[in-house]
Amino acid sequence: MTSSDPLPVETDDGVRLWAATSGSGVPVVLCHGGPGLWDMFGDLADLLADTATLYRWDQRGCGRSERRGPYAWERTLADLEAVRRWAGLERMVLAGHSWGAQLALRYTLDHPGRVGGLVYIAGTGIDPPRTWREAYEENFQERMGVRLGRWAELKERERSAGEEREFCVLRWSADFADDGLAHARRMAEPWFDVNFDCNAAINAEDRLTWGSAELRERCRACPVPVLIVDGEKDIRPRWSVNSLAETLPRVSRVVLENAGHLPWMEKPGEFRHAVRDFLAGCR
């Protein structure tokens, strides 16, 4: 399949999800971050178009997908399974970014026979979020610099639609190694409203379940090869990922210098090289 036209995915409870496919090669299903955001993988898909057939989708209630819940971990995992069936894949590589890396990991642990490899991009490991959250907040404030005042002003009051976009762009600018406003504005094109209900519901589940001994044991038993790709200057402390890297039995890790939370945007050549090498072993 090489068409870039959007195609509908219908879940088992009747919710319609936006999806699209492009490229040619190893089948790779992409899982975007959030929760509550949408697919921002246009540049990444272009980088890998000659290596992989890429399947992109907006998660339930997000972006171009139908804005209807429920919003929960098990529901999102079932939606990812619906995408796999829509794509007609018996096996696939999963590539997830940020929270989407956690989603891709959970699906891999649940269905290792359906996953030929996992590309874990800028995730935060398997320890509880509280272990790294304080360091993240400190790094965020430092990286924001002079933009912090305006962001804080918007944070404390009701925002118009235009101000909501500005608020997110300002926050996302801290996700890049250098002055990230241009990159952050690119992330916001096209713009869709953030689904804060989805974000709150799934993050609440994370706080209850992430970091469990059961999750750690399941990672130790995971037979699937995993590539962890980090940006050295991600404001989410990279030591948070050690909890995962030290647990998986078949893992390699690439840390890209002078890159932040979206390493394919700041270091496209190095990112492409690392992922292409990994995909070559997943055929």
Strand order of the largest sheet: 1-2-4-3-5-6-7-8
Please tell me the total number of domains: 1
Radius of gyration: 18 Å
CATH architecture: 3-Layer(aba) Sandwich
CATH class: Alpha Beta
Query: Which runs of at least 5 residues are low in confidence (pLDDT < 50)?
Result: 1-5
CATH level 3 topology: Rossmann fold
| Biggest beta sheet attributes | 8 strands, mixed
Give the strand content.
15-25%
InterPro entries: AB_hydrolase_1, AB_hydrolase_fold, AB_hydrolase_sf, Peptidase_S33
Keywords: Hydrolase
Protein name: AB hydrolase-1 domain-containing protein
Family: Belongs to the peptidase S33 family.
Write up this protein.
- Mean pLDDT is about 95; it is low at about 1-5.
- This protein has a single domain (about 5-130, about 195-280), classed as Rossmann fold (3-Layer(aba) Sandwich), CATH 3.40.50.
- The protein is built from 12 helices and 8 strands.
- It starts with 6 loop residues before the first strand and ends with a helix.
- It is α/β, with parallel strands linked by helices and about 280 residues long.
- The chain has an 8-stranded mixed beta sheet with strand order 1-2-4-3-5-6-7-8.
- About 40% of the residues lie in helices and about 15% in strands.
